[in-house]
User: Fold these one by one.
Assistant:
Number 1:
Amino acid sequence: KNQVEQSPQSLIILEGKNCTLQCNYTVSPFSNLRWYKQDTGRGPVSLTIMTFSENTKSNGRYTATLDADTKQSSLHITASQLSDSASYICVVSPNYGGSQGNLIFGKGTKLSVKP
Amino acid sequence: EAQVTQNPRYLITVTGKKLTVTCSQNMNHEYMSWYRQDPGLGLRQIYYSMNVEVTDKGDVPEGYKVSRKEKRNFPLILESPSPNQTSLYFCASSLGQGRRDTEAFFGQGTRLTVV
């Protein structure tokens, strides 16, 4: 069964510190992997999209990595800010015979940045 | 400004009273979908549409209906709401379904309470 597992479920860090969120998936073959940021009560907003051939992609202080061999991805946040407090969702898009499958969502990691 | 607009943002209704949540996008996207988000379960797809007059069930379609008469609109209909449909709902749109070169844009969310 196609699954996306994220860890940790929640994380508390101090402002200015770095952190890394993990995503493991069993989707195969897959088309792309995305990371979304979701503020409480708001819709998810895309941070990065990576295909299977990409190893890393950055968006400001956010850097996503992908290891397609081990089916793992990570999202690294540098010099965290209070506004980084949110849930971060890993999403994988399957690739079924050339057509694109529906998105498969992880349950998210809830990050709290404290002053 | 490119956006997905849902209405209403908040809704409290009684069991059995039909309701419609509207969703509109101004990006000429082909693909639209509805999700519900519940604590501990992440985002789950209710219905999706690959284009006008083309709709299909997602993972949790029971109790919901949709229609896609125009490209920009994708309303979610609850014919006879029940308390287990109390949830946070999101509409999303994208150029294609999971394509590598496109991202999904989410609406602001509709918080529905059925009493």
Number 2:
Amino acid sequence: KAGVTQTPRYLIKTRGQQVTLSCSPISGHRSVSWYQQTPGQGLQFLFEYFSETQRNKGNFPGRFSGRQFSNSRSEMNVSTLELGDSALYLCASSLRQSLDSPLHFGNGTRLTVT
Amino acid sequence: AQSVTQLGSHVSVSEGALVLLRCNYSSSVPPYLFWYVQYPNQGLQLLLKYTSAATLVKGINGFEAEFKKSETSFHLTKPSAHMSDAAEYFCAVSSAGGYNKLIFGAGTRLAVHP
């Protein structure tokens, strides 16, 4: 079974631009969540989608948004990029919504903002 | 609110030596705890999880962790380190604030020397 696929692997953008990252979950997984990983802040939860609805959101500004499609694929968008948005963005999928359901992570998209 | 503290941002061991990575958690509800490993330029891979079924949890690659409620700890161990174990390890707790929302520790980078 294929794992979580994130595209692209690397992105370089300029301040003020916007970017869209894509995530394809493991087949059959309906929950997709996004995390930001930086050396200073570590791993931080962005948001979680289940059945095309955002179920939970982390403490990030409104410039960060996402959506989920009927096939469970998900995208996240960051508008008006800032230098501090440079990070590894990780997508994770899970079979169901539960506190003990393990997350399966993709290899991430490394975003560099210049 | 839940939180996770990983003691020691860097741990160095010799090949064949015991690996001990420390994790303490804070949770107002019975916790679900996880250990993940991250190799360079990759996402996170689940090593093991605690969901109250047994206090000693065995995971992949010879790792295990013991849940100790009295000490609020969930330390990760491996009897004999291998060079391939060199990676960054993250302890995480499920947030009571939402499904599939993990709160991660800052991580411990494990170096294995020949």
